[in-house]
Amino acid sequence: MEILNHFSLKNYNTFGIEAKARQFVAVHSIAELKTILEQYSSEKKFVLGGGSNMLLTQDVDALVIHIDLKGKKIIKEDDDFVWIESQAGENWHEFVLWNIEQNFGGLENMSLIPGNVGTTPVQNIGAYGAEIKDTFISCDAINIETQETKVFHNEECNFGYRESIFKHDVKDQYIITSVVFKLTKRNHKINTSYGDILAELEKNNSEASGLNPTLKDVSNAVITIRQSKLPDPKELGNSGSFFKNPIVLKSDFEKIHQKFPEMKFYNVSETEVKVPAGWLIEQAGFKGKRFGDAGIHKNQALVIVNYGNATGQEILAVSRDIQKTVFETFGIHIEAEVNII
Ligand code: EPU
Atom of ligand 1 at shortest distance to CA of 53? Predict the structure, then answer.
């Protein structure tokens, strides 16, 4: 294990922001991770997974630990289900495809989400009507202070919309090292209810659009939709949705809706609605706009992009400008989904 000083994190964050780590180490086993945590117990630490959900606005004055734990295996199965354990450093999309190839169902709607398996529970990633919490059984996590392993079961994780215990009660206390998912071997719960998927299946292949699309058909449809709307971080730096879709009290929403009757919304509970932030940002006039090397994607206003050499501060300034204008226009506050470092 080599500790590197003043290490550039440009290739370790999907925004492609140039920022330096005071020290950097990649760990490839639990033993290595524990050794580092013990040896550097008094150092400030920063845990880095796939770097797909963060905006670096400054150098990281800490020991950056890159979790590069690999491996995935079946740990249990019966006639209907399979329990798969993946180490935290596996690439999420490759993991999804590996399961689909074996006809294991439950993750297909979350194809092509950037990042690594170990960070998926932190923000309960989701797309096209599916969320991690639907198939997540448990994860192993190492306590940064004591180096003891704790198993977090689904119920303990307090999963919500892009939320979990790892962002709140135990924030910065644990490093997730592996995750177990329970997937279907047969009677897959194919979920095409999210409007675009059905339309895409129909367009692509009329047979697949019948009653029985396969896991692969659904995954392919999701991939096509995502590729048409979301920029590939390898080509254009970005961090997926920069903001969360705001949840607004129905009583407040009714007043706003009277002023803006064309505003889209989804009911989330008896008392709350979710409003698509992409719509608010587009209506506020930001879609496709560019400010130096920072900009708002032309096909999806929720995504802020780095055209090349934008700094984290420049991206942050654009995000604040968007928040301010959206609030002034609609009276709705939109909150960042990415972690601002
Ligand atoms: N919309 C606009 N303009 C835009 C973007 C969206 O008017 O520029 C409208 C759309 O017309 C649609 C609504 O907003 O009526 C919702 O758009 P979309 O279905 O594209 O999804 P989203 O709410 O913008 C969320 C997730 C995405 C996920 C998609 C699909 C959040 C913050 N984002 O986006 O997740 O892929 O749904 O399920 O919940 C991510 O988290 O990084 C991410 C990409």
Answer: 42
